[in-house]
User: Fold this.
Amino acid sequence: MYEFPSSKIAPFAKRLISRRATATEANVKDAVADAARIGAVEQPYKIPAYATLLALMVHPDRVDVESNGEANGDAAVDLASGSAGIMEDVVKGFQSSLDGLRWRDIRLTIHLFAHLTRAGTISSSSLLQLLQTFTAVLDEFGVSYHRGLQAALCAGEGVLIAGEALFVQSAESIEAIISSLETFSSSSSSTQDVVVPFMKQHEIGDVTGERSYKAGEALSVQSAESTGAIISSLKTFSSSASATSDVHVPSSSPSIQDGVDPRMEHQEIGHVNDERSYEVLTALTSTLRAWAASSFAETELPFPLPYASLSLKDVEPETQFSLPALIVPPEVIEVEGVGESSSEESRAPIGPAREFPDVYLRLFENDATPSPTTLTGYLLRTLSADTVNIFEVNRREAARILTELPRWCRKGLLKLKNAEGELEGEWQLEPLLVETILSHCFALPRPEQMPLYYHSLLTELCKLAPQTAGPAVGKSIRKLYNLLGDGLLPEVARRFAEWFAIHMSNFNFGWVWKEWVPDIALSPAHPKRKFMRRAIELEIRLAYYDRIMQTLPPPIRDPEAGVVPEEASAAKFEFGNPANEHHDASMTLAKLMQGNPEQRIPRSSPQEVIDEVNRIREQLAEGEYTAEMADETARAIAFQTLLDVGSRSFSHLLNAIERYLPLLRNLAKAEGAKAQLLDETQRFWQQDEQRILIVFDKLMQYQILDPVDIINWCFGSVSDTEGVTMDGHAGRKSRWFSTFKWEALRSAMDKANGRVTVAKKRAATLRKEDDEARAKAASTGDDYAMADNPDAFPEAAPVIDSPALANALKALATLTKDQKSSLTAALTGFCRTLVYSPEGTSWEARRDWTDTAWASWETWGWFRHFCTFYSSYLRSYANTLETVVFAELAVPAGAHYANAPILIKKIWNVSLGREDA
Assistant:
């Protein structure tokens, strides 16, 4: 099954040449070359085979017919005529990919060219010239990181595959290419630190450095100039805050002389510099540097090379194909603005961009999977990742192809069972695949594909190879779990919990929970405890309460452990209890909303319900309630009753909200009413975070609430939510951030950004239609008559936008303002929370941390993720945000971490790619 079919390539090549030589159809010749090129970019594991096929088609005389078999067809056919122009057609296809900046196709086609160079079909000098074209992109002024990274990968991987031939051609040029890649990689080293999946406590270490890891010179030792600028701004913050009685800078703040904090030398943003993760470009340059040191003399690719094993004759250099001189076209910059303004709003992006280095987790040791800084490790990971991304449209086919990778790799490279059932080979396939899939699923700030695709792909792998893939998945789960509390970021932990629950649901929820029983003694805010609660909560969503409880050992089921809820999630309807003093009023509203089908009593109209709510409010005000208390109580009764009516299912909830939208608008119009609606939702569904998020989303969808209301609520802290714990998660009364709050904030931010995206696209479409209509109207005039007597014609009417465009621009302005308000609220909330971070919490002593210390660490992690996840939007409004938020940032009374503003600004600068970071 796993023998490379190299003997079939030569006869097949001759058949194609014969078909091409005798074809009468005009498109046959182009189709043959396109098929080979497209096959290479759609099936990268077959690139050596396609290179061999093209090499034999270009030079059919290189085949030893006697050893490889005669091709079917007429032997008298002029094969030279069939091979003419093949490489030119391949280059045409490559030019098309280049024009469209389809980077993966470009990179894989360069792989094909590199193999053809090794086979002697393409001249080394022309390939070297092509690779230098891509390194020139790195020197472009203002080149985006994504463009630079893709160009660097194209050049670097081309050298990696054809290095020996290129090194013989020009060792100096190879050194220049590698140096160029290293320079570009080092320029993004600081940005890399904010997407590493690990983070230490955000603190300033002691002068001995015993409590700090070096994150790289770009961040570990900050320049005196940039530090001085930050400190100068902080002095402004402090002086502006000194006039306020409840805000001060603690006397324990370090002394600052000459703009330099004596402890800044060891300040870092949380990068743990170890082998638990790697960055793609750094791995590539390390591999290239290692092989360049040996002059590429011992380079052995992990793939079989049929063109090296077939009986091929030497090709004279003058007969080799020379790739033409090509240029990489500039990026297509989509004009986002619909007006002629150069304001922040016009520069805001339509969607997120890939602006950060690709940093991936490592879950297995080098004895199980090859290191990514080796030739084998890098190329195998690249091949696996490309296959995963190409076949995302069919997870079953992707899984099948991945399990068959040993067929396309060098014999003995990947372990396989021999006739006796024993594993033979150098590396294990399944750990490599599991590590590749999970590392891409957990990539920050966002994965390339939908997370559910990676989840499904792992499920298919386990079904295809249960005896080998299953143990690899189990080991990866244990590895990830052990990383919890050891610096694994909260966002990665969140994705890990989602994948874990989904994977367990596909395999009968069969996990050995007893392994984690000792961890229930940890702090309730410890990442391992929070992971268990989160995973069990998600499993219950995917099944039901009693089913999941059967899979858990008694110590974890114990209510005192605080891991599982005491009962299945259900609504906590405060006014459903007959003992409640407002029970009768709530039941009256419920009857109006539900009607009585048996007695043919229809549901009441929204206005009738509003009248009843007003009557309840008046009755309460006439009693012992103040006007404000009466209003809040009536609102609570009405809203919780509406939630109870819609609590039976999602469709019931949607129907109730849609039917009584006027009631909801009436309830939300008073000051502070929107925050109360959010509090009532949390109180009603305190055992079901998913329901809370659904209600929040629907209230935003119908514009009862604005995204900024949700964001402000996430950072609010009120006293009337005492007792709301939400299955062990911190309720709203906690100032610290949590997974639930992040999901609520992300939902609100995505809603605000999505509305602007839709409005921009609509305004741009209407602008285009308006311009076309105006141009058409202008072209209907009598040009000849105007040329003879231009004074006889009136002046052109002033340009006036159509009513539709004017309305669209007005809506866009409003939504853009809401977007900016949402970003401001989120950044302000994080800043005002993080200044309360505790000081003196040693990372090495984290096993003894309190709940506050862990909650603070988690909030720093969410802030870092917020800055990277929404960096493209934050960068567009950076000037405004810095003026509004940072200008008032100070350390309030009761805060312990005086250096929090410095770290906040540092993370902000690095995430936004500021030069002074």
